[in-house]
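Q: I'm teaching a short session on how sequence maps to structure, and I want students to see two examples side by side rather than one. Could you give me a first protein with its sequence written out and its structure tokens following it? Keep the formatting plain so it prints cleanly on a handout.
A: Of course. Example one:
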Amino acid sequence: MRKVVLSIGALAIAFMVAFAWSHTVLTPSQAGVTGSINPTEMMSSYEGKLPIEQWEAI
């Protein structure tokens, strides 16, 4: 009886580990999506005035 309970517990733990691993490893993270944005290219293609250029010194 003890072996049956221990084996059921081991199977339950293995199932929980596999479930947690499948939800964390297989889904893409947000960092991978934002890595494609190039800030240097965005700044070089900006055509408007910067806020500091609109400010008049006293």
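Q: Perfect. Now a second example for contrast.
A: Example two:
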Amino acid sequence: MEDQVSDLLGVVREEITLYRDLVEHARQKTVLLIKGSVEAILESNRVEDALCSRLRSLEMEMARLCRQLAEAFRMSREEFTLMKLADKADPSYAPEIRSQADLCRNLVRQLRSITQRNRKLIERSLHYSRGLLAVFSNASGAYRPNGLFEEIPSMRPTFSQQA
């Protein structure tokens, strides 16, 4: 059982490292969103996808270890948390389990905050882009090769007298 606790702590440490990377990446993405560099944003998305993929695999490993530890301590998986593990595991592990859980929780909060800010930046950008598209789509003409509008003759609508 101590091996499983040790393995779980190793997974949590790896997750913390990934969350730190994701927080830093999200901060850098804020700068990219403000600058509006499409190529850099696309590359940033690829890096973010790779980090998230690694995080998903760690989460699966963590879930497996938590199931095993929950069974070993005769707890349901739903009630199993790192803090409860700290209470039940060997007392030598308790301080590290608690500190790692706190650190992980704080990093997730930071990431959530930065992600919400980035989402607002993206939403504003989309709103601005939609406004520009509306301006262009409501123009009553087409572009000439020189960039000026060429007037398109309007067509009078035909209405049925029987309607």
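Q: What should students look for in example two?
A: Point them to this: The first strand starts at residue 141 and ends at 143. Also worth mentioning: Residues 23 and 110 are 7 Å apart (CA to CA).
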